[in-house]
Amino acid sequence: MPIYDYIYSTMDKSTDTLYETSLRRPDESPDVVHLTHLTTPESIYHLRVGLAALASWPYTSKWYLWVMWPWTFWSMMVTWIYGRTSFVVERNVLGHLKLQTWAIPKYNIQYFMHWQRESINNLIEDAILEADERGTKVLSLGLMNQASLAIYPDMITGEELNKSGELYVRRHPELKVKVVDGSSLAVAVVLNTISKQTTQVLLAGTFSKVASSLALALCQRGIQVFVLYEDDYKKLKASIGTGAASNLALAKTYAIKTWLVEDGFNEGEQLKASKGTLFIPFSQFPPKRMRSDCLYYDTPAMVTPKSLENVDSCENWLPRRVMSEWRIAGIVHGLEGWNVNECGNMMFDIDRIWEAALRHGFHPLKST
Residue 291, exposed/middle/buried by CB under 10 A (0-12, 13-18, 19+)? Predict the structure, then answer.
């Protein structure tokens, strides 16, 4: 209010009330929610709610963030001890859909701790229930909220954690919101990344339902799929059936030029690859790039339509206006009005979701 109105008592008594009322906005009811989490202690600065300048660029560790380590450590302790609910990090609009990204206050390392399992599950469950209460149609699970198998022994796997969201669907059969883990679109993106001239691929890493679906689809297309270890070969052969398994084999060489890799793909395996090898990840997190003489693709992602509004930050390590397919899958389900879950062992139709994504303006990402 004007200072002289205050001094001479001439202000309208309702001014403060009117101002406060104008600031109040009813909570938006998003149509689609993508549920992610923090990754590293400094990742908070790369969110839109952190530092806008950093959020507008793909996530990389900056030297000057070490200067801020006291604040980073403090925020990490507060988040670790008092983080009890998810928070909104981004709001977007695509056509008639209102989109939101929520994050739960947990870091990557906490997902590998058995004693954190209940806390993480409770946060994810609370977010799903809140989304359901607010009338959200689809909730997609990002990063380790629906992670595949863990890399390290004696640590939580995604299947142990919540079976890619199936735990909550079974626990709350009355849910109207649909839980989507995006596995079918992950498979579709990888299949459409592989060159049409490819006749052989090597599958490496810790195997999940995405790996099984990829192996099955490739074998059905007449592409030879090789794996490095006999145990993995036996598991894959059992999962894809004897008919398609005729194109599945145990690798006797590392000279195969196209490698499809998931979490668990180790540095030793990467160093044995021949020069010019193409690494295509189908994992949530990108592999460490150790070879300057090889080509690395980004994690499964697509370029967003130009009609997507309020895109002022990057999703983790991806470029601006590029979105992970796990996030896109939820949006496509919302746009199409598909009233189905995709979690646990459930897989949506691969060709159908790929065609729908293209129809709504998403298009493939070129290699970097």
Answer: middle
